[in-house]
Amino acid sequence: MSGTVHVVGAGLAGLACALRLCGEGRRVVVYEAAGAAGGRCRSHYDAGLDLVIDNGNHLLLSGNRAAHDYLMRCGAAGALAGPNACVFDFLDARSGERWRLRPNASRWPWWIFVKDRRAPGTKAAEYLGALGILRAAPGATIGEAMACSGLLYERLWRPVLLSALNTDPREASAGLAAAVLRETLVSGGAACRPLVARHGLGAAFIEPALQTLQARGAEIRYGARAKKIEFSGERARAVNFSDDAIELGAEDQLVVAAPAWAAKELVPGLVAPDEFRGIVNAHFRVKPPEGQPLLLGMVGSLSDWLFAFDDRLSVTISGADHLMDEPRESLAARIWAEVAAATGLAASLPRWQIVKEKRATFAATPRQEARRPAAQTEWSNLLLAGDWTNTGLPATIEGAIRSGYRAAELASQEKR
User: Fold this and answer.
1) Residue 371, Cα to own-chain centre: how many angstroms?
2) 336 located within any domain
3) Of 152, 175, 192, at which residue does a domain stop?
4) Pair 183, 235 in one domain
5) Which residues of the chain fall below pLDDT 50?
6) CB 373, CB 384: distance < 8 Å
7) pTM
């Protein structure tokens, strides 16, 4: 009989790993330091708003194959909402111009030759500049691979790349950007349809996964903070928690799916990303006006993306390290002024909440990319998972789920 797989961390990576393994009939125990699962992909009740909100807004795409597989596995395939075609609404806050970016479904990008499908003021030939990213040398930055200036950059490449990488594109890894582009725009509009968890990340990704895991016999232990892993030769021998310890049997396996900084404390000599970037999310309890798009890209403003949920408007600001020390009250007022102008709502500030994630993602620079470890370690029964591991993608929901799947695949191979 196969041994138990012990998964440390109940974020998306850990849950994805557990789902795959339970689906194969493996016994799984998940340990979570917090009192709830989800990690940085979670929902919670906010008393000030009297609403359930997400700790951060997340945009997914129709081409995120691992994310869709994950939702299928836990019976939540219909949890994401979005347009039936690839459509992105934009507003330039400086000029007041609005437009819809509409890539065609097929791989041949004929949309760039149609004026009302591309960003206004741009020419079709300018879009070829992105080929520099796809052809960039290993270790190059986006700034070294293409021109990071001009109207096309401001109205398309900067917002798209900043949201994907959470790092100023000029210093971000061209290799990671290329991976994103190959799976999105290069694959055609059919892979780029925007999708949002309209009823919250918890309802889409966390609660269904927990229910599925429990139905398949997985055990989930909350308040279990791993403090130390003990080793013997080429194997992990035991895991010490705050108030307990587990011995790993001869057939047991251990998956560390904790954040990078926590994993480094547990795994001796682990080289992992050590520089991070912040994200700010603002939530306003106000009903979106009639006709407000589900997602609005905001150019030339503090706000990057405006999400229209049924019961609130929410803003995401990526690469937001410079805002971490700004008082929440002034930040809320600044953001709302932009939202009110964009939506035509009253200028008076509604009930609000600001959520600052100082270490939302690893910095997507070439140096940090080089520090991402593989899932397999030097210990035969110890594996790693997390969006900070070497998934080939930036730190995204898709990357986190793929990392969990990779760890599960390796754990299964070990048993064959």
Assistant:
1) 19
2) no
3) 192
4) no
5) 1, 416
6) yes
7) 0.96
